Fold this sequence. Notes:
single chain
Amino acid sequence: MTNQTIDPSGLIPPERDACAIICYINKEARPTHGNVQRTIEALVKMGHRAGEINGEGDGCGVLTDIPRMIWREVLEGAGHDPNLAEMPGFAVGHLLLPKEATTADPQLQETILARFAAAGVQLLVERPGIVRSEVLSSRAREGEPLFWQVAVLCPEKVAAPALLFQLQTAIERDFAVHVASLSADVTAWKVHGAPELLPRYYPELRRRDFLSSVTIGHSRYSTNTLPTVLRAQPFSLLGHNGEINTIARLREEARMMGIPLFADGSDSQDLNRTLEGLMFRYGLTLFEAMEVVFPPIFSAMDGMAPELKSMYTWFRRFLKASAQGPAAIIARHRELCVFSVDAMGLRPLWVGETTKEIFASSELGVVPHEEILADPKPLAPGEKVGVRITAGQPVELMDHPALRRDVFQNFRKRTNLPAQEKALMAAGCVGAIHELPLRTDGAGVGQKAKWHRNAKLHQDNLMSAFAWKSSDLSNLREMARSGSDPIASLGYDGPLASLSNQRQNLSDYFKEQVAVVTNPAIDREREAEHFSTRVYLGPRPQLK
């Protein structure tokens, strides 16, 4: 028997069902301190969405613009021209170094700095970040990493993102450190604890000259992994609420594409890295990368204009393992932001406006009602909203059709879509065996008679060619007789094709593995519409 503590108020306990995500974007692309403040306040209001162990939060963070006013001060104090903080190639890295790593290798920081020099970037400042460790709980303090800040100057602004991405992946591959952010645009601030701790742990977040035009906030509810600051979000690109059920397959696909993943990373970390790889190794924009990883369902593609259907077909051939599962995403790279909801709509995301800002949030109540200009819009299943930010100009808010048109106009220049479409051949074009012409030398009649004499063998061969078994027919007969589905175990419980001594069909080697956690029940109507066994066989299409 389990003892339960009943709330004396008689009210239902607050839900603790999912992570909290929030984003504020200044409409004039003007950096303000209020932008950061409101994001942290919203995370505090959504504290019921975060997980905790013995009163200790699972982790939270914010992704902000580089606080250039503060870095002007730091550069001047280090003897550099403070105007370097406004240069296009100026970049800041936030690295989290576990105590075990610095203890095992006292020269770790010097070795990492040598990597920066070898990459061709100029080191301006390196310093321990300002933190207040005394505000952490005992468990968080035990695992507290060294917060290390590095400011560098990249030789070329255009090549800076790809160069910094290559440097970041090399550092994480060769050293036991976590690069929270290494960018010419953003900085990530994360802590193992509740959102209230963020401005207390990082006192610079409270400074009035800490300015940001876009701030993404995230508060974590751990499900499959233990809470740690290294897995706290946002990551360098996004904040994610949900689970990627097909993460094992997505990881395999990313490795085949040469995208280095985190060691023991969470599904959100590897999703973040996959998107980065598509952008920095394959030259896609954030809009394009999000449409590749989260494409529309096949039934929606079939109703699109021919050019859009061709583009999304290309996307599905390029990345055969799309991210599936509950996912509300807020992502940002340079001047582009995306708000996205998974195809099933299993995680909420609301988009609205105040007089000063555009916001996206897991919940409505975090923004004061009197400040909202109109009813916020809940994103529909599979819907995305794009934001384009240009300094000194009003930001451009793009609905999903406009975002798709923007993606198509850019992507059509990268590849020859008509030629790629001609290279596709549907399985139905191959033709059935019984449609093959018979021999005309007189042996055809005998051949046909032979098949009739061996009708059962012929049927078994045809069934095997299409991965059917006699048990499948038995199930169909029983379903037709009773009008109900057969009772069977969930998932595939037969022998693996790779270990079988008998001939196997190609489809036998593909067994999907999913993580079933905190997902609501899905009705069969939506299953029939959203899930498909359609696959593309052949080489990955190439970009120009």
